[in-house]
Fold this sequence. Notes:
The protein has about 425 residues and is of the alpha/beta class. The chain contains 17 helices and 14 strands. Helix 10 runs antiparallel to helix 11.
Amino acid sequence: MTDTAIVSFPASGCDVSSVTLERGQRQVFCGLAGIVWLHRKIQDAFFLVVGSRTCAHLLQSAAGVMIFAEPRFATAILQERDLAGMADCNQELDRVAAEILERRPDIKTLFLVGSCPSEVIKLDLAKAAERLSAAYRGRVRVLDYSASGLEATFTQGEDTCLLSLVPELPPLADDERSLLVLGTLPDVVEDQFTRMFAELGIGSVHFLPPRQSTAFPPVGRGTSLLLAQPFLGETARALQKRGATLLTAPFPFGVEGTLGWLQAATDAWEIPVARLHEVTAPAVARAQRGIARQREILVGKRITFLPDSQLELPIARFLSRECGMELVEVATPFLERQLMAPELALLPTGLRLTEGQDLERQLDRLRADRPDLTVCGLGLANPLESEGLRTKWSIELVFTPVHGFDQAADLAELFARPLVRSSLLRV
């Protein structure tokens, strides 16, 4: 049996019943942005977006691809004839797929990625994936998913991508047990967690997505599911239907979150808390020293989160409890109550918490509050800066390694940096 927990959840915390639900004009990136980190993670996969020139420009800009680079994503551009129904889109799609696979024989999984334009003209990419899978059977797996921004925020592109992988995962044997970490992590962070799980005595640890699409992790009734990212609710539910057991935990941001996250796994494996403390003590000490330097800049500063990435709650918890920042308002596009229960318990009572977005109303509140720092999407950052409001791009939280103990100080520095820059400009 486990010892007394080292991470305790307060009886109070943020009251879910007081969450303000807003529906109105939104300002978000589309799910195509997820390809930027997914194509780096799954090293033998190719992402073919079926969309417009705007989709292609978005990906090129977000990824910062140099002209001589050859990334593992591309855009099959829908022309006016395609949009008008005057051309056979499927015929052209088959041609582009054949060209990619001939040029890149190392590709083992081809994703057909839907966009706003392809969904508007009702192009059936599921049937196209079936057709291409049959044509290339034994050589490449062809899957489809939607990354349209019509109804979703940009991080949900990863959720729909990983959801398409769930039917492909092999079954876990009835007498086996494994830990499945869900969510894209930079390789360096994944390696850190792998070593720590091994030191703790937790064996058979898998990650989804894997680095190679030919190494899909097994899933079944012996699978314990631990989420590394908070925006993967649909994939988590699909894995639970396959028999996985969800381990509810705070997300691994900062010392407190990472300890709580690891403890969820050690509790499931009945590993004593004393062992968890012993294994993590050096990393905790390093993280606390690094955070302390940034805390000197952040403590007492007021911060507002506009809804964008679905990382808002765990990051707000970290900044409030470990960095001493004052939370003015925390808004998130969608509030997954089951996944966020541990985070809500750690947020301050009386917090102004908003689900969804009515952009004009939120901007009115922001201008009235005048926080020291506003976390928002790229499209709002420059206009707000012109009004004298310091901002932090929320997309940096997805592009930058910020999970775990060794990245905790870097996470705090992301928020200290614009405040330091502002003070230097004032001088």
